[in-house]
């Protein structure tokens, strides 16, 4: 969600390519400690591992396949180290899920992180611009990054913050006459204002559009809390297929980006996609987990493109490059299972948050690579697994009630 520990402490050394291949000792230490602590916490709680695996076959298969893919990577040691690093996301989800009240735990985690990161970004941009603002060497145009790394990173931070505080405000609104709830709503409004200001500064069109859609989905999901709108359930897949068909036939994506004041090439993304797709060494299995952007392929792209890309800026293409068609099929299966589960959950809070995160993840990955990493993926994992236990007696399931949303976690 923010910068790496080594970037905060300015402990990076060597070339960018070398840093990508070898990583940083300080980052490994910090993430190693976090992973060990997360594993320890989960091991001390009464987690039903059999029930967890039984309810998440596709997710278990995905985790196993990504581990297996490190074997055929050109750099198996690097792929394996990155797999271990990203395993922290799954363990973090389990720490939240193993709490007796997982939805409240998720609420507390996101809230506390946003309480720190969003105001910190505002302070850095206002008073410590050397740490939070970069300038284009040719035009001098500022790029605001706040506590994140790059304007797209700030946009992603604001997207998660905006989704959470809008969702939390809508679900608490019926209880606004309660004193504690009123104070929470005032805090939410303040954080929403900061988030919108930062999002405007970031100039990240993807995050801006996704947040707008997220707000509409939250409102639609809470419109009638006792019923699931059939038009929404059926409409989402229909709208998705219609969009893909219109884009294939008439290039509607170019019209949308032009309307948003962006280049029809999506700031060089279409050119990047045309160049990297033929470089996939194995269309069926891919280059191995996080193994595509290494070695000669990385140098080829950096020689051809001045902006030095290190990801495909499309989550689905990124999965294809690293895990091939097999990986895409498994990821697609996980998304379909998650979508199906969202509509079976009994609580409106889980339904609205799960549906919003699912839709935003689907759309965000059209122009950014956010599968297997980042806060959106963590939110999708957490909601999918929580919902899988929503109708069971497993200890990680939570029985939410309307009164449970009053006050701040």
Concise summary:
By secondary structure, this protein is mainly α. 66% of the residues lie in helices and 1% in strands. A two-stranded antiparallel ribbon has the order 1-2.
What topology emerges from the helices and strands here?
Layout: H1 5-8, H2 16-22, H3 25-43, H4 49-54, H5 57-69, H6 76-97, H7 102-127, H8 129-132, E1 133-135, E2 142-144, H9 151-172, H10 179-202, H11 205-221, H12 230-250, H13 252-259, H14 269-276, H15 295-304, H16 315-342, H17 348-364, H18 374-388
Helix pairs in contact: 3-6, 5-16, 6-18, 7-9, 7-10, 9-10, 9-11, 9-17, 11-17, 16-17, 16-18, 17-18
If you had to describe this structure to a student in words, what would you say it looks like?
The chain has helices at 5-8, 16-22, 25-43, 49-54, 57-69, 76-97, 102-127, 129-132, 151-172, 179-202, 205-221, 230-250, 252-259, 269-276, 295-304, 315-342, 348-364, 374-388; strands at 133-135, 142-144. With 409 residues, the chain is mainly alpha-helical. It has one domain. It has a two-stranded antiparallel sheet. Helix 6 (76-97) crosses helix 18 and helix 7 crosses helix 10 (179-202). The longest helix has 28 residues, at 315-342. The radius of gyration is 21 Å and the shape is globular.
Low-pLDDT stretches: 393-404
Number of domains: 1
Number of strands: 2
Rg estimate, integer Å: 21 Å
Record the strand order, biggest sheet.
1-2
SS-based class: mainly alpha
Which percent range describes the beta-strand content?
under 5%
Q: Helix proportion of residues, in percent?
A: 55-70%
Spatial separation of the terminal alpha carbons = 21 Å
| Oligomeric state | single chain
Q: What's the overall average pLDDT, rounded?
A: 83
Instruction: State the major sheet.
Output: 2 strands, antiparallel
**Overall shape:** globular
**How many helical elements?**
18
Instruction: Summarize the helix and strand pattern as letters.
Output: HHHHHHHHEEHHHHHHHHHH
């Amino acid at each position: 969600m923010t910068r790496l520990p080594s970037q905060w402490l300015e402990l990076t050394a060597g070339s960018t390519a070398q840093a990508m291949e070898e990583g940083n000792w300080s980052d490994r230490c910090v993430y190693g400690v976090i992973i060990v602590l997360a594993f320890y916490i989960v091991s001390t709680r009464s987690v039903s591992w059999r029930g967890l695996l039984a309810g998440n076959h596709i997710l278990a298969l995905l985790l196993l396949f990504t581990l297996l893919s490190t074997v055929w990577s050109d750099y198996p040691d690097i792929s394996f180290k990155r797999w271990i690093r990203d395993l922290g996301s799954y363990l973090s989800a389990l720490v939240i899920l193993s709490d007796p009240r997982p939805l409240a735990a998720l609420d507390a985690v996101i809230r506390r992180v946003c309480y720190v990161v969003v105001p910190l970004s505002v302070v850095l941009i206002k008073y410590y611009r050397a740490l939070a603002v970069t300038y284009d060497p040719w035009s001098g145009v500022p790029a605001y990054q706040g506590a994140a790394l790059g304007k797209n990173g700030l946009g992603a931070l604001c997207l998660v913050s905006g989704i959470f505080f809008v969702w939390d405000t809508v679900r608490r609104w019926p209880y606004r006459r309660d004193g504690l709830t009123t104070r929470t709503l005032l805090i939410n409004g303040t954080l929403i204002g900061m988030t919108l200001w930062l999002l405007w500064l970031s100039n990240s069109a993807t995050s801006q559009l996704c947040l707008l859609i997220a707000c509409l989905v939250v409102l639609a999901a809470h419109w009638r809390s006792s019923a699931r709108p059939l038009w929404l359930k059926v409409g989402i897949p229909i709208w998705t297929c219609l969009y893909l068909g219109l884009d294939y036939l008439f290039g509607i994506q170019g019209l949308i980006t032009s309307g948003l004041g962006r280049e029809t090439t999506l700031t060089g993304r279409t050119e990047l996609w045309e160049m990297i797709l033929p470089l996939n060494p194995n269309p069926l299995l891919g280059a191995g987990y996080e193994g595509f952007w290494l070695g000669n392929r990385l140098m080829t792209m950096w020689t051809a493109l001045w902006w030095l890309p290190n990801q495909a800026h499309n989550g689905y293409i990124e999965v294809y490059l690293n895990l091939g068609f097999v990986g895409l099929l498994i990821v697609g299966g996980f998304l379909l299972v998650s979508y199906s589960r969202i509509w079976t959950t009994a609580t409106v809070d889980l339904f609205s948050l799960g549906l919003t995160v699912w839709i935003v993840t689907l759309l965000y990955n059209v122009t950014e690579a956010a599968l297997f990493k980042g806060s959106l993926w963590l939110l999708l994992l957490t909601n999918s697994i929580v919902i899988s236990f929503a109708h069971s007696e497993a200890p990680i399931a939570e029985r939410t009630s309307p009164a449970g949303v009053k006050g701040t976690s």
